[in-house]
Design a protein that fits this description.
191 residues, alpha+beta, 4 helices, 26% helix, 16% strand, elongated
């Protein structure tokens, strides 16, 4: 949407710049019509509007999101490495407990669902809300349902898209259950 808006603005400016010289060409050799808002006496009477072609704007490089890229230039979040250590305990699911390494871009490590976990992280990283909320703990004072989802506990430490991560997750109430579920498949699905 933003790309379409920017391209429409650029095309409109180019059309305007091409149209103005054509409309002022008929007034060559004369000062042109005097607009009613221009003073005809006093100190500003000698000032006449400049009737001529508009200067062409300087071409500027387009930002990545307008240029067909992903919005991440060199060294920005799109190229930053993701390396997480995920420690999970008390899930009650065979093979889900343990400490797993997860690397994305390219996918690697010992995480049992590495590619799916990297895809989930990339999906969350594609939105501003996802980048802000994915690893954020439930704020103090949040009203949560008192549903106990089990004794599962996890700790995630490392870097995600170049940002430091050190967070824990549990299933002690409705808010924490929802948070855990938003991190599946980085965390095991224990529903």
């Amino acid at each position: 949407m933003l790309r379409r808006l920017a391209l429409t603005a650029v095309v409109s400016l180019a059309a305007l710049a091409a149209a103005v010289p054509a409309s002022t060409a008929t007034a060559s050799g004369s000062l042109g019509p005097t607009p009613a808002a221009v003073p005809t006496s006093g100190p500003l009477a000698a000032a006449r509007p400049a009737l001529g072609p508009l200067p062409m704007p300087m071409p500027l490089p387009l930002p990545g999101f307008l240029d067909g890229g992903d919005g991440a230039g060199p060294g920005e979040a799109g190229e930053a490495p993701t390396r997480l250590t995920v420690s999970v305990e008390n899930t009650g699911v065979a093979g889900a407990d343990g400490t797993f390494e997860l690397e994305c871009g390219p996918t690697g490590g010992s995480h049992p669902r590495g590619q799916a976990a990297c895809d989930r992280l990339a999906e969350a990283g594609a939105t501003r809300a996802g980048r802000q909320e994915l690893f954020r703990p439930t704020p103090e004072g949040t009203m949560c349902t008192m549903i106990h989802g089990g004794d599962a506990f996890a700790r995630i430490v490392g870097t995600w898209e170049g940002r430091a991560v050190d967070t824990t997750a549990s299933r002690r109430d409705g808010c924490e259950i929802a948070r855990w579920n938003s991190l599946v498949p980085v965390l095991p699905d224990v529903r």
